[in-house]
Amino acid sequence: MAIIELKNIIKIFPSEKVGEGVHAVRDVSVSIEEGDIFGIIGYSGAGKSTLVRCINLLEKPTSGEVIVEGKNITGYSEVELRAVRRRMGMIFQHFNLLNSANVFENVAAPLKNQRRFSKEEIEEKIAELKKDSSLSQKEIKEKENTLLKSNKKLSGKEIKERVEEMLRLTGLEDKEKAYPSQLSGGQKQRVAIARALVGRPKILLCDEATSALDPNTTTQIIELLRSLQEKLKLTVVMITHQMEVVKSICNKVAVMEEGKIVEEGSLVEVFSEPKSSITKEFREKTLYRKEAIALAEKNKRNLYELTFIGEKANDPAIMDLVRNYPVEVSILFGNIEILSGVPFGTLTIDMKGEGKDILDAVAYLKSREIKVEELGGQKLAGQKFDGEHPLRGEESVSRQSPDNALKPEEEDKERKEDRIWNG
Questions:
Q1: Were 296 and a residue from 79, 158, 168, 376 both cysteine, which residue would form a disulfide, CB within 3.0 to 4.6 Å?
Q2: How far is CA 175 from the centre of its chain?
Q3: Same domain, 314 and 365
Q4: Last residue in a domain, options 213, 243, 278
Q5: pTM score, two decimals?
Q6: Which domain holds residue 10?
Q7: For 4-43, b where at least 16 C-beta lie within 10 A, e where not — what string?
Q8: pLDDT higher for 254 or 148?
């Protein structure tokens, strides 16, 4: 079930310089399921931060609908929105802590004047009572009245218990008396996370939460968010321009460019089969593809990128390829990651041999359900090889002759081993 639905969201900021205003978000529709860690990635100015602020209506859309937990909140008053926002925590790039308050006071701030249960929680509890067939109508009414009477503001003791629980979950037990000026960037973000979750929301919005942190601290914060998402059963929306952040935590992703979502799907789908140019650009930055292509163009090599997904990541395909086809393979780049629990591997190889043999080898890899993309070099795909071919000259005639064709089972054992270890 979708916990967040955005329907045809448009956000235009007025501008004196631009007559029609600045179009920050252009007709965006997206559905986020309960329990998702949903990444929205894009470069600066893509509209992703504006979009996430439309979810809790910190930015009111020019047009479109925002539906949270099945309710259209687009037209809610500020009083009504306060109750909705208690169900949504939010963290920012620059922490937004109160410098004059210590850690405990910063985390406790959202609980001031908060009642034990939100309006939605009261409605859920009453609905559960009405479903209980063992209760009479009189008993249901009595329990309902008791519940409403008990829904008072949180006591000092209850606030202390909640804050201490969040400090423990975020690893800040020994920092409750410290002030923001005494904390590192990572510790400040942990305080911001504790403050966002102390009200026990169901949704956590993260707007560039790791952008101001160094790589090591970013990894720690990502691990903390993943742990909290599992423990607290959260739905998380991650806004970022960092592909590594999306890859390390998200199960679904949407790519934004110029205010539009240009691609959306599961992390594995989007990362393994990018369709838009911007997604391909993000992907190339993490796979060194530009370096590989430059190498191929410079040295006229036949470079291919192989993509292995799931169980195929453990497939000894290269070894089998060298054993069965008269080609030589050199491995230039390689990487295996776990994306949303699914092994995802890429391998950049240089393949040497007859043009036809290389094409046969590529077809063989594809038959093993391995995605093969030609990166550069001789660009053999689609070529026909009759007689002399561009790689080996006259030698190709005898190699491709039906009478003299080299059969895999006739290959010399020493030659095969030489290709395996030195190719």
A1: 376
A2: 31
A3: yes
A4: 278
A5: 0.74
A6: 2-87+201-278
A7: bbbbebbbbeeeeeeeeeebbbbebebbbeeebbbbbbbe
A8: 254
